[in-house]
Amino acid sequence: MAQRPHVVIVGGGFGGLTCAQSLADEPVDVTLIDSRNHHLFQPLLYQVAMAGLSPAEIAAPIRSVLHEQRNASVLLAEVEAVDLTSREVKLVGAERDSLRFDYLVLAAGAQNHYFGHDDWARYAVGLKDLDDAVEIRRRVLVAFEAAECMHDPVEQKRLLTFVVVGGGPTGVELAGALGELARVVLARDFRRINPASAQVILLEGGERILTSFPEKLSKRATRDLAGLGVEVRAGTRVTRIDETGVFLGDQHIPSATVLWAAGVRASDLTRGLGVPLDRTGRVLVQADLTLPNHPSVFAVGDMTSFLHQGGSPLPGTSPVAMQQARHVAHNVMASLRGQPMLPFQYVDKGSMATIGRAAAVAQLGSLKLGGFLAWLLWLAVHIFFLITFRNRFAVLFNWAYSYFTYKRGARLITGHRLTAGPSRSSLALAPVAESAPPPAPTGSGPQQAPPR
Q: What is the predicted pLDDT for the residue at 183?
């Protein structure tokens, strides 16, 4: 009996998981490799960071998602390198050192990009995985607790100043959720401080926030953020970040909590492929999503730069990754049948971003929505795209609870111990790890919501 073709997929994000599922009924064997055992619904990651949801409500074990797919197996390991000549994937953390493939699908995602200032990562945590989200939640909640214990008004103000760098959808959602957390959720929980006095500043280097949206919706989002107490500063460039706060040239913003949402770059895995990359390390894929000169190796999602549709890269969003993954599955089977592989064509179904309670912006073709209606649409789409029924039910219940009670049930501080003494606030806000930021996950999904 002839051995069936082996399709290896690197990454269990939207792209990798969708590709595996799209091959469910095909005569191939599929191995999905990821350094984490769960698929993460990244569009709601900011809600974990802002104590709105618990990690388990937006993630599901990859094995449980694929357990009924007989031709699929899951390998918990990290991909160190890919040898395109010998058709092998080099592994770390697995019993075997390498894994051979007939077809390879790279969906390794992206990581935070500090534009040559990797030392900023210690002071400005990004939002790419559950560890980041829990760390952000810890820093934000501890800042309020430390301010409650602080008698020095200058230091107290620094503790209650939150800076978000980056005015894209992730930055807007983080800033809006921070404003809502301070002004609504925590408003009555403290005795010595007024959480509503917290200052939330959103910094954007471009002329306006949400540059991928029409200017009308960008202005609407700015007004909605102002209603939540968020100060938007467009046209500002961050020149330095340290333990004291953020520097904009000669201007200094004292802050104990800085969040990074200014950019991403491809997984480090792309550097060893020996194929053309763009300036952020993304693979310049062919029109059929293969790597140049490697017709059996495909790449999808955030780690790719697709320039065959209008000349500009496609956005790093989940719809792009999922559509590319389905197309790759089709092309793999076409190749096995001796048929020509087809070029990929992305169908843009719209974009949306939430600002806060009953406030969002959405663009669906020529239709532009803002406010409560856009927010309802945002809720419905995100519930629909969650990976399991349990996740859908849990998120819907928590959102309903939060909406009617103005409370959030995931306000836990973990990975932290208070110590007595005058240095309590500084110790409380010190980063958990003193080393460089953790490596990018091999299976991180896209950063934005499904309809974007």
A: 93
